Amino acid sequence: MIKARAEAAQQLLDRMARGTLDRRAFLKLAAAMGVAVLLDPGQTEQALAAGQTQLANRQAVKDSYDYVIVGAGAAGCIVAARLADAGADVLLVESGGSDDLPQVTTPGLWFTNIGGPLDWKFHAAPSPDVNNRAVPLAMGHVLGGGTSINAMLWVRGVAQDYDDWAQQGCDGWRFSDVLPVFKEIEDWEGGANQWRGAGGPLQIGTAHAPHPTAAAFVDAARQMDIPILDDMNGPMREGAGYANMSINRDGSRASAARAFLRPVLGRPNLTLLLNTDAVRLLFKGSRCTGIALHGADGVRNVAARREIIVTAGGIASAKLLLLSGIGDADDARRAGITPTVDLKGVGRNFQDHPLLFGVALRYKGKFPPRSMTSNAVEAAALVRSDSAVNRPDVMMVLQQVSAVTPEIRAAFGAAPENGFVISPALVRPTSRGRYQLTSADWRQAGRLDAGFLATERDLEATARCIDLCRDLGRQHGFDPVRAAEAIPGRSLGKAALRDFARNATISFGHPVGTCKMGIDEMAVVDSQLRVHGVEGLRVCDSSIMPSIVTGPTSAASHMIGAKAAHMILGTA
Ligand SMILES: Cc1cc2nc3c(=O)[nH]c(=O)nc-3n(C[C@H](O)[C@H](O)[C@H](O)COP(=O)(O)OP(=O)(O)OC[C@H]3O[C@@H](n4cnc5c(N)ncnc54)[C@H](O)[C@@H]3O)c2cc1C
């Protein structure tokens, strides 16, 4: 009851922040709904200022801004907020719409967004490595980007991930360089320490009333001699435990939009345009001077006095560069685009984590309902697929939902009605994919060869991880909750296990790498995230990762946005 009233109060605040309610109407409704006492005066003033300011700014879009930022996801929200806070005149353009929706704010509903209106609904091209399936690749198409629809896992990876970047020529990106940035953005419920930050804008915590399957998972991991970690982000290493989530103390989703952007939307020097697509970058010689936008009123050009900053995510950032002639010049001509800069790496080096749905277990009796504050992924283990491997390369992910891919269902039967899944995930893939345009029309999705399980090493590690997940499910720790393994439910020989991997693979939702940072000929941006060969243009999001981090990519994407803001402002 109290929660329902708190949600009603939040919805009213959101409507006012969008500019669809004025102060009088807001106060009248709050009194009528009996939620006035729940309203924090500071939040009310912030929402009112945001609504009035953004309404006025939208009605008077200017011909030029200091910075134009494309994409309001994990990285874009942080860059925009920090630059606006520093006094710059900022335009933030987002293709998706508002995030004032219960399926965004309620953690337990996140997966209902996959394939729905808040998802770009992208698919990888069919590949024999996954039995010619066109694997769906969900990406957030809404204010907040992926952080508004993701599973809220907050995982930095391991320290070596960032040291690897530095070794590849990315100066300033060693783990010791990025740790302070991770710390400054978070408000970890356990308080600050050598590894963690407290008091930052983004609240991070673990499940407070975990589902019985989560405790069973951790017990089972202990029985497999996997180290148990009190906090999976500190120290960041092999082990199992309760997952960190980006979640507010009140149990609602903590997204980049809510944590970083909303508090500054009352600033007159920040304009947020929703439902607006960036379709092409504009140039004068080798300088990027502006951008062509497509919104409800058609196309308009906006100039950037200082820089254009592209934060459109793991695929769309590369797409915008390619549409603007930055990429392989021969490919550009073939697509009917005049080449601007011959940068062969744009769209290449694609990486994602294959995730398998999975090893399905039948629950003992009726599956207890999860709390709506649960992300349904409350525990995980980061391990090595083989003792010969020198660092963690696979993850076992508890999924407190009962689902398998259609191909696994056809071969092994439906997932049990009362059940849950242990998903193998390959978190250090060696294969690399490629994104390409199929036409010069920005509305066309283009083609992604994702490279899932495309190398022998990746297939072998994934197959081993299936066995590890099955082993985990057999441990006594699961006895209180597991009746039996339902899928695969029988032992699989080498060929059958590999076939299972090919049929069960989906995307973990972590596309990165298509505008990679570095100094080699395939690098797209330098270590300050400036596009090679172009002035006035940076790419500052998940697409710049030279190699994917060992775990979900949201935390690293936030860090990239925050570090980019420091670079632009000269504060790091
Ligand atoms: C279903 C799902 C579950 C996930 N679960 C997790 C998880 O639990 N933990 C985790 O760490 N990571 C998870 N991720 C991944 C994580 O959300 C991403 O790594 C992260 O959001 C990437 O940040 P980004 O800033 O690079 O891009 P995004 O957050 O994707 O933001 C890009 C934004 O740009 C907008 N955009 C794109 N093209 C244009 C254009 N032309 N014009 C204007 N705007 C444009 C998009 O609409 C989007 O809002 C998940 C992702 C999905 C989709």
Can you walk through the features of this model?
- FAD binds at residue 142.
- Pfam families: GMC_oxred_C, GMC_oxred_N.
- It comes from Paraburkholderia panacisoli.
- The chain has a domain at 1-60.
- The protein has 16 helices and 24 strands.
- The chain has helices at residues 2-17, 23-32, 41-59, 74-85, 102-105, 146-149, 159-167, 175-185, 212-223, 256-261, 316-323, 329-334, 406-412, 456-474, 494-504, 554-569, and strands at residues 64-70, 90-93, 122-123, 136-137, 186-188, 202-205, 239-242, 245-246, 270-273, 277-284, 287-295, 298-310, 326-327, 341-342, 354-356, 359-363, 379-383, 394-399, 419-426, 434-436, 447-449, 482-487, 505-507, 537-539.
- The strands form seven sheets. Strands 1, 2, 9, 10, 11, 12 and 24 form a seven-stranded mixed β-sheet that branches.
- Strand 1 (64-70), helix 4 (74-85) and strand 2 (90-93) form a beta-alpha-beta unit.
- Helix 1 (2-17) runs parallel beside helix 3 and helix 4 runs parallel beside helix 16.
- The protein is globular, with a radius of gyration of 23 Å.
- It binds flavin-adenine dinucleotide.
- Flavin-adenine dinucleotide (FAD) binds at residues 70-76, 93-96, 114, 138-141, 145-147, 149-153, 155, 277-278, 311-314, 316, 320, 509-510, 541-542, 552-555, 557.
* Morphology call: globular
Helix and strand composition category: alpha/beta
Biggest sheet layout: 7 strands, mixed
**Oligomeric nature of the chains:** single chain
- What is the rounded distance between the termini? 46 Å
Radius of gyration: 23 Å
Tell me the fraction of residues in β-strands, as a range: 15-25%
Classify the helix fraction into a percent range: 25-40%
Q: Got a strand count?
A: 24
Helix tally equals 16
Return residue spans where pLDDT drops below 50 for at least 5 consecutive residues: none
Average of pLDDT = 96
Query: Which molecules are bound in this entry?
Result: flavin-adenine dinucleotide
